């Protein structure tokens, strides 16, 4: 095993240990994370959607699960499950759109699992999960009719998006519907910051599940991220100091 | 029971691939490569299933005469024509290139141009939507970069293009971008671990 693989192994194994440790420690008490206003407004939007019988629309982006962008898709799927559970009392199930076939299939599976759990095995309408296009702009233009015609009151864009997300944010604004958006791609984050009602920056994309509905493992994963972030900061500062001293 | 089996299989496959990445044990590497090959094959099959999903959704919109059903009809016809031509001529054939360069590319470029206008309007509305210091910094940075990059009728602006734009883009923006990317990398790691532990189950585990 070379040095970089060894460091990666220590990082992964250490994170796994910390994750399990924190999850066990925090089974009964939930840690206090900083308030993110976007999530407060998201909870309100979910409540409004359930009350007035409108729909949630979750768009999962184009991050293939066989690529590094897959994690953003997985975070989106995890949030979709929680959103579907939260709106299970509503007349209309959420709609999930994606620009990547594996995400479309998995989103159908997630929606179906949530629906059947809520209705004890009721018949699930598979049209709730859709592949809207296979290229960036065909995906965006295929998603636009969903935003416009499906009685949507809240849109949640969570996943790997490119700059085409700007077309979706514009359409949501024209419909006066709530919009929370996050991407793992930096240019898309700039576009979302300028155009989305509630943009999330950086790793906030991966924290959505915990902020929507608390679970020990999700809370533990946020704590582990915080610890690793401090470790990285210390390493960076040490590296800079050693470089200044001429030792590196 | 179905959930338990799918979760066990997913965890097992994830662990084998992860351990096979760190430790070069021949049998483990062989199984890891086999699983990765299966994943690639499955991803290709997913494309086919995804296209069927696209056809099915648009077909139901046509049959139930929903709003926008006409566009769905155009989509279904175009998809079928392209599919048949693709099967007949194979990718790279002049007919397929013609479809790509004469239909797909111009339409996507038009949408890109539309996006430029949309983003300009969004930037103008940014201060109304989020009246805070960060929005001001965002807009001022955008203007500085534009002044240092945009082709102007009287040539380039010396101070903006030589000093200010490289400093903002290569020092300030790069530092911020690296910070965000490190945060995303750490979150990716913990997301992967949650899936590996079977806490997040995007594969039908109920």
Q: What's the helix-strand series of chain B?
A: HHHHHH
Please tally the helical runs of chain B, counting DSSP H or I stretches of 4 or more residues: 6
**DSSP helical segment count of chain A:** 9
Estimated helix fraction of chain A: 55-70%
Q: For the residues shown, what is the average pLDDT of chain B? A: 88
Explain this structure to me?
The complex is a heterodimer of chains A (248) and B (206). Chain A has 2 domains: 34-213, TPP-binding domain (Rossmann fold, 3-Layer(aba) Sandwich); 214-248. Chain A is built from 9 helices and 6 strands, in the order ααβαβαβαβαβαβαα. Chain A has helices spanning 3-25, 37-52, 70-86, 101-119, 136-149, 165-174, 186-195, 208-212, 216-244; strands at residues 55-61, 95-98, 129-131, 152-160, 178-183, 198-199. Chain A has a 6-stranded parallel beta sheet, sandwiched between helices. In chain A, strand 5 (178-183), helix 7 (186-195) and strand 6 (198-199) form a beta-alpha-beta unit. In chain A, helix 1 runs antiparallel to helix 9 and helix 3 runs parallel beside helix 4. Chain B has 206 residues and is mainly alpha-helical. Chain B has a domain at 1-89. Helices cover 83% and strands 0% of the residues of chain B. Chain B is built from 6 helices and no strands. The mean pLDDT of chain B is 88. The chains are: A alpha/beta (248), B mainly alpha (206). At the A-B interface, helix 1, helix 3, helix 4, strand 3 and helix 5 of A face helix 1, helix 2, helix 4 and helix 6 of B.
């Amino acid at each position: 095993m070379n040095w970089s693989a060894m460091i990666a192994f220590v990082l992964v194994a250490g994170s796994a240990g910390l994750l399990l440790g924190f999850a066990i420690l925090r089974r009964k008490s939930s840690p206090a994370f900083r308030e993110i206003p976007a999530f407060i407004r998201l909870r309100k939007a979910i409540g409004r959607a359930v009350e007035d019988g409108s729909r949630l629309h979750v768009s999962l982006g184009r991050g293939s699960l066989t690529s590094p962008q897959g994690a953003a898709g997985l975070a989106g799927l995890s949030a979709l499950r929680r959103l579907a559970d939260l709106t299970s009392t509503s007349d209309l199930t959420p709609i999930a759109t994606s620009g990547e076939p594996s995400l479309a299939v998995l989103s159908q599976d997630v929606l179906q699992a949530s629906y059947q759990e809520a209705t004890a095995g009721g018949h699930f309408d598979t049209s709730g999960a859709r592949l809207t296009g296979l290229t960036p702009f065909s995906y965006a233009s295929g998603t636009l009719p969903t935003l416009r015609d499906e009685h949507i009151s809240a849109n949640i864009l969570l996943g790997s998006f490119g700059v085409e997300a700007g077309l979706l944010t514009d359409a949501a604004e024209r419909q006066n519907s709530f919009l929370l958006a996050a991407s793992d791609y930096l240019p898309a984050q700039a576009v979302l910051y300028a155009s989305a009602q509630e943009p999330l920056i950086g790793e906030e994309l991966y924290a959505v599940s915990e902020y929507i509905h608390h679970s020990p493992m999700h809370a533990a994963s946020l704590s582990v991220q915080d610890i690793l972030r401090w470790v990285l900061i210390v390493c960076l500062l040490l590296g800079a100091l050693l470089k200044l001293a001429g030792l590196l | 029971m179905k959930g338990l089996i799918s979760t066990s299989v997913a965890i097992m496959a994830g662990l084998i691939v992860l351990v096979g990445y760190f430790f070069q044990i021949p049998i483990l590497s062989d199984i890891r490569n086999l699983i990765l090959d299966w994943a690639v094959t499955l991803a290709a099959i997913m494309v086919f299933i995804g296209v069927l999903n696209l056809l099915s959704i648009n077909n139901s919109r046509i049959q139930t005469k929903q709003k926008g059903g006409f566009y769905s009809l155009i989509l279904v016809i175009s998809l079928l024509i392209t599919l048949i031509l693709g099967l007949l001529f194979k990718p790279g054939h002049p007919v397929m290139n013609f479809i790509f360069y004469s239909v797909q590319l111009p339409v996507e470029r038009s949408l890109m141009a539309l996006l430029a206008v949309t983003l300009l309007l969004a930037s103008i509305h940014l201060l109304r939507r989020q009246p805070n210091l960060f929005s001001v910094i965002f807009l001022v940075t955008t203007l500085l970069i534009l002044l240092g990059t945009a082709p102007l009728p009287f040539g380039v602006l010396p101070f903006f293009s030589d000093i200010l734009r490289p400093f903002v883009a290569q020092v300030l923006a790069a530092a911020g971008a690296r910070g965000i990317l490190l945060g995303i990398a750490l979150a990716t790691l913990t997301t992967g671990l949650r899936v590996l532990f079977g806490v997040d189950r995007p594969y039908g585990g109920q």
